[in-house]
Recover the amino acids of this structure.
């Protein structure tokens, strides 16, 4: 009896997918990338079936959108019940209680013992855009600081704040003014001979120097930081670094904005990843797994800051839609009832252990890192030089996909394998997924295996 979860009925992509792919190439612009060239038929939990009947294990989670898994019954029920009553009225035309309930619950969950308010939008980029607007309105300042390797979106403002040039910014300028990028720690690539503590202190000193050499702090409205960088390669900063940035912001009246769009909603073992750092932000941006696949985003913050904008100055036609609000409420119920924060912490330990086992076999794995279930491996051509291997990672993604495992790359150099499987993934699905990942490594890096373990 075949008890494997992954099942391949055809080559990947199969004939039906290839037929649809022809239509996609004819009518959809090439600027929209596709990690997988197959087309989904249905998905549940951490398992996806394509139109050809091939079954995959999902370690990508729609780029961190599906912490509660595909088509969770509670989310599906919430959407169906809402759609049967009304689909949309526009919150700025006629309000609905689910928006209020969601705002109330998130304000109570967000860190900080002070009055908070929340506003909802559609996408992560919109959340960041509105956090910038609110910060500027409140402080009466224009400057915004983001960080190297940070990713905040693809709109004009958020693209400007984003660090990676290709593919996100190349030839799309000119960019928005008064946006500055400060250095952000990258422990794996710190200078040789420097301890992690020394490196953290050096990075804090560089930030202080940045506020002298690059921009005056009195002109800065907000510092926007991903507590764990997502697209940048799952870079986890030192706690002291984050705390010192918060202290400097307080010193100069700069708002501290935590971008939780990829790291929030139980991914790191907390509702918000900033909780790991003992820091209370002024504003928090949220999206992705907030709606389990239904578009919704938001900004949570201190009530007096959130009230800086006058009536009509923020919002939008579909902002905080009824479907999105109900999906988000269901997500919060699932995180609580299924103890997903605890599950993410345990899952992260297992993932890191699996990655470390792989690193003992394959010398191409230069670094293993993560926080909770937000984990990654950095792939290099040589462990001594740490030369990024972007081409190898592209081959890994392809080799895994052809075997029925969906994974994603990341990093400023495109040489990081990031894992964002649903936190609800079963132990069996996780185990089989890593078996497939190991096979993909063996296929791509068969000449790179450790001499100690080669041939096992």
């Amino acid at each position: 009896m075949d008890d494997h979860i992954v099942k391949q009925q055809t080559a990947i992509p199969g004939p039906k997918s290839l037929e649809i792919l022809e239509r996609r190439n004819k009518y959809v612009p090439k600027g929209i990338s596709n990690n997988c060239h197959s087309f989904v038929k249905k998905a549940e939990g951490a398992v996806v079936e394509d139109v050809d009947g091939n079954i995959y294990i999902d370690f990508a989670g729609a780029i961190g959108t599906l912490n509660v898994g595909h088509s969770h019954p509670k989310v599906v029920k919430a959407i169906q019940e809402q759609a049967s009553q009304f689909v949309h009225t526009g919150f700025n035309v006629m309000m609905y209680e689910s928006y209020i309930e969601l705002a109330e619950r998130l304000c109570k969950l967000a860190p900080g013992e002070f009055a908070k308010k929340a506003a909802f939008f559609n996408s992560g980029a919109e959340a960041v855009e509105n956090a910038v607007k609110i910060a500027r309105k409140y402080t009466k300042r224009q400057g915004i600081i983001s960080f190297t390797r940070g990713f905040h979106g693809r709109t004009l403002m958020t693209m400007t704040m984003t660090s990676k040039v290709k593919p996100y910014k190349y030839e799309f300028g000119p960019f928005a003014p008064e946006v500055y990028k400060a250095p952000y720690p990258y422990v794996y690539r710190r200078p040789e001979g420097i301890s992690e503590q020394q490196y953290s202190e050096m990075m804090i000193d560089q930030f202080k120097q940045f506020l002298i050499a690059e921009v005056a702090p009195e002109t800065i409205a907000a510092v926007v930081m991903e507590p764990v960088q997502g697209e940048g390669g799952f870079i986890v900063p030192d706690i002291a670094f984050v705390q010192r940035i918060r202290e400097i912001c307080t010193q100069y009246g700069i708002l501290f904005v935590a971008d939780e769009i990829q790291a929030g909603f139980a991914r790191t073992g907390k509702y918000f990843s900033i909780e790991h750092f003992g820091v209370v932000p002024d504003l928090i941006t949220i999206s992705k797994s907030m709606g389990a696949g239904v578009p919704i985003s938001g900004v949570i913050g201190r009530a007096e800051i959130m009230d800086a904008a006058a009536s009509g100055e923020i919002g939008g036609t579909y902002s905080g839609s009824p479907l999105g609000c109900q999906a988000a409420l269901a997500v919060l119920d699932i995180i609580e009832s299924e103890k997903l924060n605890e599950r993410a912490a345990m899952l992260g330990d297992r993932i890191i252990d699996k990655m470390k086992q792989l690193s003992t076999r394959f010398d191409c794995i230069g670094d293993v890192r993560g926080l909770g279930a937000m984990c990654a491996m950095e792939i290099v051509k040589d462990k001594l030089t740490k030369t990024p291997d972007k081409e190898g990672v592209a081959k890994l993604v392809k080799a895994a996909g052809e075997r029925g495992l969906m994974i994603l790359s990341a990093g400023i150099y495109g040489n990081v394998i990031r894992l964002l499987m649903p936190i609800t993934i079963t132990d069996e699905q996780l185990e089989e997924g890593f078996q497939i990942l190991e096979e993909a490594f063996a296929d791509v890096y068969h000449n790179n295996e450790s001499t100690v373990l080669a041939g096992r």
In short: Confidence is low (pLDDT under 50) at residues 451-456. Residues 42-68+339-444 form a domain with the Aspartate Aminotransferase, domain 1 fold (CATH 3.90.1150.10). The radius of gyration is 22 Å. The CA atoms of residues 65 and 289 lie 4 Å apart.
